[in-house]
Each structure stands twice: as C-alpha cells, then as structure tokens.
Amino acid sequence: MVSKEVEGHADVLIAGAGISGIGSAYHLQTQCPGKSFLILDALESFGGTWRTHTYPGIRSDSDLYTFGYRFKPWIGPPIATAEEILTYMGEVIDENDLAKHIQYSHTIVGASYSSVEKLWTVDVQCSATGREKRYTCTFLWMCQGYYNHAQGYTPEWDGMETFEGEIIHPQTWPKAVDLKDKKVVCIGSGATAATLVPAIANDCAHVTLLQRSPTYFFPAENRNELADELRRIGVSNELVHEIARKKALFDQDETCQRCLTEPDVVKAELLEAARGYLGPDFDIVRHFTPKYRPWQQRLAFIPDGDLFQGIASGAASVVTDEIERFTPNGILLKSGQHLEADIIVTATGFNLSVLGGIPFKVDGEPVDFSQTVTYRGMMFTGVPNMVWVFGYFRASWTLRVDLVADFVCRLINHMDRTDQDEVQVALRSQDQGMTLLPWMDADNFNPGYLMRAMHLMPKRGGNPIWEHSQDYWKERESLPEIDLEAEEFRYARKAAAQSSAA
Ligand SMILES: Cc1cc2nc3c(=O)[nH]c(=O)nc-3n(C[C@H](O)[C@H](O)[C@H](O)COP(=O)(O)OP(=O)(O)OC[C@H]3O[C@@H](n4cnc5c(N)ncnc54)[C@H](O)[C@@H]3O)c2cc1C
Is residue 3 situated within a structural domain? Predict the structure, then answer.
C-alpha cells in the first residue's frame, strides 16, 4: 500500500453501527474493558437496516423480546416499528456511552492485513467531507450486515421501460410518494410485501399483492400476555425481559421442531389461521399455500393478521400468477389478466453482499471469500484476526450477536492471557480431504437472495465446526464450550514479541 497518514489505531475496529455493531461494542466494552475500539459506519447515524428502510409500516417480523439484546429489557409490544427499534438502540448507545467510539459517514473501502505487523490497515472514505482516511487495528469485527444497503434487488422484466407510472423498491422508498387515488401493485410475497400492503391499503385507491408463489404467514396478536401480566403485578422490566425472552425462545424452539417433525400439522394450522381471517370461500390453496415446508424460509409474523384483514376488507387483494411483461399502465400476467397500476412496488428482496463488498487483502494477496472455509459462520480460513457477525434466519438475528460477542471477547481475552497477537483458523489433520460444500444447505434454507449469491459465499465442510449452523438452540450450548486451544486455532506472536519472550 502507498504510504498514507494513519488517522488512529484501535485494538478492535467494528465495521457497522447496526444492531450487530452496537451490541458487539457493548459486549466488548463490558467483557474486555481494557480494549480501545472504534465503530465505523457508512450511514449518517446508527441503526443500519432500521434506518435504511423507510417504507410505510416498516417493522420487525420477529418479537423484540428475542430481537432485543439479552442485556437491555424491551418494554414495548413484541413486534416493533423501525422507529421504536432505533429508540431502543439509541438508549443502548447513551446508557453505555458508546457515541464517542462511533464515526458515521465513514465507508470502509479496503482492509489489508500484514502478518508481519499483525495489524489490519483499514481505508475509509468519508462521505461528509470527501476525505480519505486510514486506520489500523489489531482485530476486525465485521458487523456490516448481509445485503447491499445502497440498492435492493429488482429483476428485469420485459417492457419495464414502457411503464408510465412510478417503480419503487422498498429499500429506497422516496421521501414523498403520493398514494392518494393511486392503484398500486406490490410485487413480492415476503415480509416486506406483507408489511407494506396493509400499511398503504387505506391510503391508495387499491393495492394488489402480486406473487409468483405463496409464503407462510403467522398471524397473532401484537401483545405478550405473559409480559403484560408480569408487569401488572410489579415485576421489574429486567425480570420481565428475561422471562418473556425465555418463553418466546421455548415457543420458537417448539415451533421449529414441529416444523421438522410434523410439517403437515403446522402447515394445516397456519392455513387454518389464514382461513379464520379470510373466510371459507377464499382460495387459500392458491394464494397462501407454499410449496416448501414451513420454516424452510423465514416464517413471517403478521401482527393482528393485518395483511389478511386488509384483504378481507377489500382494500387489498392478492394475485398469484407470473409476470408476462410490464405495459404502459400496468402488468400483463401469464394467465392473460392485466393488472392496472399507477405505482409498482418491487418488494423483490436484496442483493446479498459478502462482507460489505469490501476488498480484503492478506499480505498483499486479495481474499476471495468463496475459496475460504467458514469456521462456525464466524471466522474464515486464511483470514487472521477477523470475525463476522451473521445472525439467525429462523430465530432473531440478534440472539447470535450476543453469542458471537461472548466468543470473540473470550478469544480476545485468551490471546491477552497467552500473549498472542494473531489468531486464525485452519483445517485440522482430520479435516484434510473434507468435501467442501456451498455455505448453506439449500434444502435447509433457501431464500432467493441467498441462492443468487451462494457462489460468492465461503464454503462449508462436513464437520460441524466448519458449518454455519442456523440453530440457536444448539449454538447456545456449543459456542460457550469452544476450546480455544483446539487444533483449528492457530496463534502467533509478532516477531519482536517473540524474541523478547525467548
Ligand atoms: C426490512 C427488514 C426487516 C427485518 N426484520 C427482521 C426481524 O424482525 N428479525 C430478525 O431477526 N431479522 C430481521 N431482519 C434481518 C436484519 O437485517 C437483521 O436482523 C439486523 O437488523 C441486521 O443487523 P446488522 O447490524 O447485522 O446489519 P445492518 O442492519 O445491515 O447494519 C449494517 C451496518 O453496517 C454498515 N456498513 C455496511 N458496509 C459498510 C462499509 N463498507 N463501511 C462502513 N459501514 C458499512 C451499514 O451502513 C449498516 O449501518 C430484517 C431485515 C430487513 C431488511
């Protein structure tokens, strides 16, 4: 690298001030109190996903007793708006004095590791000033999320350029959209479409959810009876959080297990719940009966069945069909039906981004993550002093933020105690010749954004330590038990430290 002035050094540099980065910073400060740290984020403030997405109705689809951190009680309704999540995160930052560690509008544009210096050099572009900066750090804690924040995924359809109305991707929802008297078609069947459609149903002339294939939805009241009752009898917020969290985790585990052991029963229950809102004459088979097993893709929670209520009221409707092409005033479907539209919303998902799209180098050699093997979805072979936080799909993302943080803090403290400057993971003797497989088993979890980018993701191996498990209930036992002196961990000291120790 050309010499450039180094702006500052931190023991740990956290990439991203979303819910993962802020949680990781809390744990680092609490569990490794002597470590200096810096958090960099490309956005102008904290929150990541919850700041980027501003479409109508934006909310969580998992409950905040588990999506919230284990250390900070959640006191609102289980399904929260983006604003409520940002307020919660803001409180974590204030209560723990984290703001002084964060630099916003700082995009990491390159990271280069020197195995001689045992140091990362991180190049940054400041969007506020246009300045380029450089930082160094010993450890990189990657909390940059999993998708490209600048642009969502929109497929190419024939005739798109002929459409005379507005095409909007929810990830880049414009500040002012006039929905009054407009016919809206929302393409997609995931959590985003399910949130957006009921949220705008009463503000536009009509909204149609257009899906190629159905999704499972889980309608339930947006209240936690147990938490409400505990609060009513004077139990502290801390204890309510702990109990409600345990109960939510127990219930989710039970649902997950049932989805594996009796998928048909769970499926029948979900369809019956939909029928309860939509009535006996609604074509549930066509519109709300997916081909996959429940939980093979994220099961979207719909508070108070609002999507079904919107459809039942007539303000919204659902069409299950394929797009033939866009027309000047709508969408022509393969069945021959034409859907008129003034606005088309493409709730068609994300572009997966592997490690924020940042070019990484180790000793001058570019890192191709697809050629690395993941260590439990946290570290990568051949990439020293770096961890990646990638949460759960089937359980709340943040549960893994807490677990990974415990592991990282234990690892950092272990390195201090044993006087090491570098750690990396490597295949063990017993792993030689191990078959390398795509990062995620498509039969296990297969959302579109993952399938489109699987070839870019690190590989997994047949041995469980080389897999990215999506099982919180197993990992909460296995991650704390990791033996940091096991063969897969390779430690090293800086040359100077080595000779003085000798
Ligand atoms: C609309 C929506 C709803 C969701 N709802 C749920 C839910 O209910 N439950 C659940 O478990 N999960 C949900 N998810 C998944 C969700 O993304 C995660 O739960 C979680 O918010 C991710 O947090 P994160 O901090 O890891 O990543 P992000 O929220 O993506 O934040 C990453 C941060 O890193 C920054 N960053 C990225 N690259 C760089 C770079 N090169 N330089 C500097 N900064 C960088 C970004 O600016 C961003 O602020 C949802 C996702 C979406 C999009």
Answer: no
- Looking at residue 316, its pLDDT comes to 97
Question: Of 348, 369, 398, which one is at a domain's C-terminal end?
Answer: 348
Residue 162 CB neighbour total at 10 angstroms: 11
* Burial class, 327, CB count within 10 angstroms (exposed 0-12 / middle 13-18 / buried 19+): middle
Statement to judge: residues 109 and 129 lie in one domain = yes
pLDDT in tens, 90-128: 999 999 999 999 999 999 999 999 999 999 999 999 998
The rounded mean pLDDT for the chain is 93
The alpha carbon of 145 and the centre of ligand 1 are apart by a number of angstroms equal to 5
User: 15 CA distance to ligand 1 centroid (A)?
Assistant: 12
Are residues 188 and 315 part of one domain?
yes
Considering the domain architecture, whether residues 55 and 173 belong to the same structural domain is answered as: no
Residue 343 covered by a domain: yes
Asked whether 396 and 471 are in contact (CB, 8 A), the reply is no
Map residue 462 onto helix, strand or coil.
Answer: coil
Which residues span the domain enclosing 205?
A: 154-348
2 lies in some domain: no
Q: With CA atoms as reference, report the closest residue to 26 among 76, 104, 99.
A: 99
pLDDT of the residue at 2: 45
Q: Are residues 422 and 293 in the same domain?
A: no
Output the ligand 1 site: residues, CB below 6 A. Answer: 15-21, 40-43, 48-49, 53, 60-62, 67, 107-108, 143-145, 149, 192, 356, 358, 389, 391, 396-397
Tell me the CA distances in angstroms from 97 to 33, 143, 150, 178, one per residue in order.
13, 19, 29, 40
For residue 502, the model assigns a pLDDT of 35
Ligand 1 centroid distance, CA of 42 (Å): 12
Point out the domain boundary residue: 348, 382, 415.
348
Number of domains in the chain: 2
- The Å distance, Cα 146 to ligand 1 centre, comes to 7
Of all protein residues, the one whose alpha carbon is nearest to atom 48 of ligand 1 is 48
Cα separation, 256 vs 488, whole angstroms: 31
Do 259 and 385 lie in one domain? The reply is: no
One domain for residues 181 and 211: yes
Instruction: Find the 19 Cα to ligand 1 centroid distance in Å.
Output: 7
Nearest Cα neighbor of 90 from 124, 146, 45, 59 is 45
Mean pLDDT confidence for 325-354: 95
Which ligand 1 atom is the nearest neighbour of the CA of 47?
A: 49
CA distance 418 to 407: 16
Q: Is the pTM of this model over 0.70?
A: yes
In a domain, 261, yes or no: yes
pLDDT interval class at 266 (50, 70, 90): very high
Here the CATH number for the domain that contains residue 494 is 3.50.50.60
pLDDT at 252: 86
Closest atom of ligand 1 relative to the 147 alpha carbon = 30
